[in-house]
Amino acid sequence: INMSLGRLVDDNDYDDIDKQYDSILEKAINEAYDKGIVTVCAAGNESSSMKSYPSDFEACISVINIDKSNQKAYDSNYGTKKDISAYGVDIYSTVPGNKYRYESGTSMAAPIVSGIVALMKSWLTITPVNPIIKSALYSSADDIGKKGKDVYTGYGRVNALKAVKAVNNLKTSMKKPTINTLKASDTYITGTASKGADIRVYNSKGSVIARGVASTSTGKYKIKIAKQ
Asked: Which helix (H) or strand (E) holds 148?
């Protein structure tokens, strides 16, 4: 699902009704995630590092707009919750009235990532889909900013060929996670798994009580749980 929508969130002026609407939206995105549907969202065009929903929800892939010089476009939103970059300046696009024109913005960048994700999914025959897609997408991006993930370009510029190759390699390398010994007083579960794997913790009734993502570089995970 490609989303070209969103709004900035001011933690100092966050009404209960806004929190309720965002909670409903996040629930819908999480349900899509659990069904293997990947959601990609434009980061927004206010040149802001504030939170932006739905792009900043954990399950969503947030896309920054970069120009032909591989720099963040002047009006693109940015920040620690933004994930990846794509070209979004002067993109030739369809417009109403059976016409074409050049458009710019994160709404031009996000569909490029969505199209590449569709290519990646066409190669994928195993689950969980989202963690494999995310891990392959981020690890294969061209690092164009500061080394590693940075606030202006995320994990880097999306690379279609590398992303498809990465998901093809990842789909055969998923391994069973390890779990470190737990004591009755522990409030974290730790261990290792495939890099970027989605980790879920179930109770005896089969309900998910906690979830997290293994590191995309080491495979280690640390998930907070209530004291059992």
From this structure: none
Specify burial of residue 34 (Cβ count, 10 A radius: 0-12, 13-18, 19+): middle
Count of positions (residues) in the chain: 228
Report residue 91 as tokens.
């993109």
As given in the structure block, the two tokens for residue 28 are: 């819908």
For 1-41, the pLDDT digits (tens) are 999 999 999 988 999 999 999 999 999 999 999 889 999 99
Return the DSSP state at 126.
Answer: S
User: Whole-model pTM above 0.85?
Assistant: no
Helix 106-122 and helix 129-139: axis angle, to 10°? Answer: 120
222 φ/ψ angles, rounded to the nearest 5 degrees: -145, 115
Look at strands 84-87 and 61-66 and give their pairing.
parallel
